[in-house]
Amino acid sequence: MKLYQLTKAGFGSLQQVEGEIPAPGEYEVLVKLKAASLNYHDLVTVLGLNPKLRFPLIPLSDGCGVVEAVGSAVSRFQPGMRVATTFFQQWIDGPPTRDNLRVMTGDSVDGTLCEYMVISEQALVAAPDYLNDLEVATLPCAALTAWRSVVEEANVQRDQVVLVQGTGGVSLFALQFAKQIGAEVIITSSADEKLERASNLGADHLINYKKTPNWSKEVKRITEKRGVDLVVEVGGSGTMSHSLGSVAVGGHISVIGVLSGFADVLPVASIMALNVTLKGITVASRVQFEAMLAFMAEHQIHPVIGHQLGFDDAVPGLELLQSGQHFGKIVLDYQR
Ligand SMILES: NC(=O)c1ccc[n+]([C@@H]2O[C@H](COP(=O)([O-])OP(=O)(O)OC[C@H]3O[C@@H](n4cnc5c(N)ncnc54)[C@H](OP(=O)(O)O)[C@@H]3O)[C@@H](O)[C@H]2O)c1
């Protein structure tokens, strides 16, 4: 089978090689992968920004495939079933713990950038029939993170106001979930053309953060000084002060991303004065994944796929992600 190996940090060290198709252990499943999607986390991994990485590694957390074979004790899946991978392989239910956050697909263990993978039956979910393989492959990281932010943590209600930053994977899923609930959505982006596409997805208010660098003022104008109920904060240190400038008293900020950096200066006075809830988020559990799938199926929500590439295009795909030119999800179609 074909697989990619990352032997050290950098795009140049991500090589396609041939390997043996692995055999599943007692509680494991052999999955023939059909598609994968790219996340910012994969870029961070391939560029070697995580000092704990062990090489060689098969990267990528997100995949959709078909069960090819199962171990003798497997009870959740049978050959022929379509599945998606999970990000935290051991986080089944309940709150995050040190233990259940340990095993990360395409990070602390091998991921989905390969034709076949062996994985614990506990680390898979059944794929919904109404979505194709490419759509299913977008869900394990970005969609589930957005779901946890909007639904599980902030419990956004109809007529509340949500702010999403940029038009990448997490943000567009957050936009779709918030709109489905009936909330009002303000979206920021670097480009007017992307804002127009976000408007077609239902975004109510559009802010170009390049043209309006002090965009929290615009958020306050739109919300008549009140601020928003939830900020889906993916920018990190470069956007946090604007997020605090945008949030309502008693509002919620989901601390998710680091697109503009990791530097940590905590604006204690603003956090206190706003009585804001800052909630750190690392994806979610498998049970939350299944709840999200049920909601998506009920409302027939389709992921926004901006770019479809092939298995051989992993490096150009990651370069596209790094450029920030993309819109929504970038997927690799292994059938192409
Ligand atoms: N904690 C978790 O569990 C978790 C899970 C998933 C992702 N994340 C993190 O969340 C972030 C987004 O991930 P993703 O996979 O959705 O990324 P992505 O698909 O690569 O989205 C990136 C997009 O964000 C926008 N952006 C870039 N810099 C920005 C800035 N300074 N302010 C506002 N928007 C900016 C750009 O869109 P425009 O051109 O439209 O501005 C860019 O295309 C990353 O930092 C990632 O590591 C965390």
Ligands present:
NADP nicotinamide-adenine-dinucleotide phosphate
**CATH first level of the largest domain: which class?**
Alpha Beta
Radius of gyration, rounded? Answer: 20 Å
The number of helical segments is 10
List how many beta strands DSSP finds: 15
Largest sheet, if any?
7 strands, mixed
Helix share bin: 25-40%
Average pLDDT metric: 97
Give the terminus-to-terminus CA distance. 15 Å
Q: What class, by secondary structure content?
A: alpha/beta
Order of helices and strands: EEEHEEEEHHEHEHEHEHEHEHEHE
Q: Provide the CATH architecture of the largest domain.
A: Alpha-Beta Complex
Number of domains: 2
List descriptors:
336 residues, alpha/beta, Quinone Oxidoreductase, Chain A, domain 1, Rossmann fold, 2 domains, seven-stranded mixed β-sheet, six-stranded parallel β-sheet, 15 strands, 28% helix, 26% strand, globular, binds NADP nicotinamide-adenine-dinucleotide phosphate
Entry summary:
The chain is α/β, with parallel strands linked by helices and 336 residues long. It has helices spanning 40-46, 133-136, 139-153, 169-181, 192-200, 215-222, 240-246, 268-274, 286-299, 314-323, and strands at residues 2-6, 14-18, 28-38, 62-70, 82-85, 116-120, 124-126, 161-165, 184-189, 205-208, 228-233, 247-255, 277-280, 305-310, 329-333. It folds into 2 domains: 2-138 and 303-333, Alpha-Beta Complex (Quinone Oxidoreductase, Chain A, domain 1), CATH 3.90.180.10; 143-280, NAD(P)-binding Rossmann-like Domain (Rossmann fold), CATH 3.40.50.
